[in-house]
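Dear Dr. H.,

I hope your travels went smoothly. While you were away I took the liberty of generating a structure for the chain from your last submission, since the lab meeting agenda had it listed for discussion. I wanted you to have the full record in hand beforehand rather than looking at slides cold. The sequence, exactly as received, is reproduced here:
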Amino acid sequence: MRIKMEADIYNFTLSDIDNNDFPFEALKGKALLVVNTASKCGFTPQYEGLENLYKQYKSQGLEVLGFPCDQFLHQEPGNEAEIKSFCSTKYAVSFPLFSKVHVNGADTTPLYRYLKKAAPGALGSQSIKWNFTKFLINQQGDVVKRYSPASKPESIASDIEALL
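The corresponding predicted structure, in token form, is as follows:
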């Protein structure tokens, strides 16, 4: 299923983990896996699987993008430097990480408003249920699929391969 939106994912610019502007326009032509992350969550070990996907498919055009979020039981309490250090030291994360975002509520970052509208959750919900909700976006910028936090990164590999 492909969902085309009036807005364009390539119009977004967000702050990366080092507080530099990151224009999504630079990602045109790539498949994207966008994930809200946390360092102290039961799903945190998924960083390893996300890094494995990134290493395996980066040369074929996949970008994994991690968005730390502290909206679920304060499971991402650190600042950007602490998050970056944790991800680098514990999981050798090399894919792009961003500054903390809100994925639900009045302060939801526009990217997540866009993603939730493009690929609602169960029963049409536009809420993010928990950390490590994943969105797969094709090379044309269409949101292809939303995955639950329990979906392990390795289970998404076949969908990524189908896009590449």
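Two observations you may find useful: The longest strand covers residues 31-37. The beta strands are 13-15, 21-23, 31-37, 62-68, 134-137, 143-147.

With kind regards,
E. W.
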